[in-house]
Specification:
single chain, five-stranded antiparallel beta sheet, 5 strands
């Protein structure tokens, strides 16, 4: 954990979950074998090109005993040394039910990341919330659409292209909003009367 890159990773995780984890807990989590293995693969340019770090309730994630990866799911690991709910995945085994962060390698496969540099463009960091689609819809509808409508100068694009772009953007935002409302409403079907069956 002594490399500048892993110190940077540790700081980003603490900042993401600052009210729920301490620096010591994050360092213990990163030192656990399962977690360390995934970050080593990420930094060495091997299979893992992205790593997600989650903080979720213990009942919803696969946990690890004594830092060893679970035999049934090598993609997920969590630190048990500190009783925290931090866990790590490649992004396809743990659903995003709460805020999480990710580290994405931008270098080509097989090319290792310089771990002596704390931060550069070889590893991107970001955070995801559980309501990603709702956030996207709000950003498009409330931020980008008004900004684009207010813009008068579109460079070499003529008025027809501008209108077509704005129409398609609004259509996409409306479709996204309708899909989200449909998902949120929840359809409840009643069981038919026994006489009908």
């Amino acid at each position: 954990m002594s490399s500048p890159r892993m110190q940077w990773v540790s700081q980003r995780i603490v900042e993401t979950f600052e009210s729920t984890v301490t620096q010591v807990e994050v360092n213990e989590f990163l030192a656990s074998p399962g977690t360390r293995k995934l970050f080593d693969e990420l930094l060495s340019g091997k299979d893992a090109c992205k790593v997600f770090v989650h903080f979720q309730n213990g009942a919803t994630v696969a946990t690890v005993e004594n830092g060893a990866a679970p035999a049934t799911n090598a993609d997920a690991a969590a630190a048990s040394n500190n009783n925290s709910k931090l866990c790590v995945s490649l992004g396809n085994s743990i659903p995003v039910r709460a805020k999480c962060c990710f580290f994405l390698r931008t270098t080509a496969d097989g090319k290792p990341v310089d771990v002596q540099k704390a931060s550069d463009n070889a590893i991107c960091f970001g955070e995801l919330a559980p309501n990603i689609l709702r956030d996207l819809e709000t950003t498009i509808s409330s931020l980008f659409s008004p900004l684009l409508k207010a813009k008068d100068e579109w460079g070499k694009a003529d008025a027809d292209l501008k209108n077509e772009f704005m129409t398609e953007s609004e259509k996409f935002a409306n479709d996204l909003k309708e899909a989200l409302n449909s998902m949120d409403s929840g359809l409840e079907l009643r069981r038919p009367d026994r006489s009908i069956l």
